[in-house]
Amino acid sequence: MDKPKVVLGVSGGIAAYKACELLRRLTESGHDVRVVPTASSLHFVGAATWSALSGHPVSDQVWDDVHEVPHVRIGQGADLVVVAPATADMLAKAAHGLADDLLTNTLLTARCPVVFAPAMHTEMWEHPATQENVATLRRRGAVVIEPAVGRLTGVDTGKGRLPDPGEIFEVCRRVLARGVTAPDLAGRHVVISAGGTREPLDPVRYLGNRSSGKQGYALARTAVARGARVTLIEANTGLPDPAGADVVRVGTAVQLREAVLKAAADADVVVMAAAVADFRPAEYAPGKIKKKDGEEAPVVPLVRNPDILAEVAAERARPGQLVVGFAAETDDVLANGRAKLRRKGCDLLVVNEVGSARPSAPRRTRRSSSPRTERRPRCRTDPRKRLPTRSGIWFREGSRRCDNQPPGRARTVHNGMEQPPGRVDYPSGVRRVTGCRAPKGETHAPAAGCDR
């Protein structure tokens, strides 16, 4: 099988040196990469470097090797074009269809997915002209990753930093997997929570859980690759920010609630993948609670935390807003999942079975006579048969554009397989995930195989 052909465009910003790491990741993962730099970018990284790393000749001129018509052929033969860094000048040229060098010509001739990873100072990124150009590119189907927040050139700090090359690579990988299909979440705002909340007990202790946040981060990366504007609210994950997502950091359940309600005000989809502590200490001890000889262990009174998922589902900020919940269950997975789906009022519930080894074969139930398990005919525009959790949720949202799949109607998914009409293995709206090998009795153990 031929290697996927990727064109790496590099425009003239100081972040051009980071594109070397992106090139390395692409080539080492089996991609055939052709680097097309702009003339100004060669002031930062020379052509010899790009040629040595990619194994291909490098030029920024349309006049080199004219018999091969490179200004047309490079774009025509590409499976993906990624521009990193993409300066304000490059975004403007791409949005207005200018073609004054090899890279801009390549962008005009490419019929494959195109990804832009902007990098510039905050003022340039926030300028109305740049924002209009970004909106134009997204409207045409390009994926424009939101820049990261951090240290910029000189002493400046703010939004405009090139995302981590590893995260750009993850976006590229997902866009390549999507193929030439237009980003089906373009124009949608997605809010995702990830990680686990921690409720302080004293200055050195807290009540928490073992959620790693990896599932929420995977959902965020996939949503970005499918064109969505993503707000990721993370709680104590320690993971690098996904490229293209606006990241909000919280610690406790109360802080998570405030952040989710604020972000959900204009969201099309809210995915509550975070593990939220059900209880918190009634009082915070200002000093470390110490054990003392001859005294019993202190009693720590607990109070309930707010039910964020139920609140978001009950008081949707806009009509048609899709709300997705997650649950971890150790026993009676289906019954507990069905009860939680009904109690929370969300549209789709993903249930992780934890606390036991994965069964040798998936358990199936007989067809239920309950009307809640009846499904509408599957949309004929659906090209997929297997739906991984992170892709299945977004395909569920993207498919709402089909007249045959109304909003608020969750699909039944079992082990990644959408169930056809007349054969439903799990209750309506419940998505069962097996495979977590957490020890029996433990609420969650991501290190044991579960990626929630």
List keywords for this structure.
452 residues, alpha/beta, Rossmann fold, 2 domains, nine-stranded mixed sheet, five-stranded parallel sheet, 20 strands, disordered C terminus
Structural class: alpha/beta
Number of domains: 2
Name given to the CATH homologous superfamily of the largest domain: CoaB-like
Number of strands: 20
Identify the strand order in the major beta sheet.
12-11-8-13-16-17-20-18-19
Looking at CATH, which topology of the largest domain would you report? Rossmann fold
Strand content: 15-25%
Give the mean pLDDT: 80
Distance, first to last CA? 34 Å
Based on CA atoms alone, the radius of gyration comes out at 24 Å
- Main beta-sheet annotation: 9 strands, mixed
Q: What coarse outline follows from CA principal-axis ratios?
A: elongated
* CATH class wording of the largest domain: Alpha Beta
CATH architecture of the largest domain: 3-Layer(aba) Sandwich
Count of helical regions: 13
The low-confidence runs, each spanning 5 or more residues with pLDDT under 50, are 359-387, 401-452
Q: Which range best describes the helical content: under 10%, 10-25%, 25-40%, 40-55%, 55-70% or over 70%?
A: 25-40%
Keywords: Decarboxylase, Flavoprotein, FMN, Ligase, Lyase, Magnesium, Metal-binding, Multifunctional enzyme
Family: In the N-terminal section; belongs to the HFCD (homo-oligomeric flavin containing Cys decarboxylase) superfamily. In the C-terminal section; belongs to the PPC synthetase family.
Protein name: Coenzyme A biosynthesis bifunctional protein CoaBC
GO molecular function, one term: FMN binding
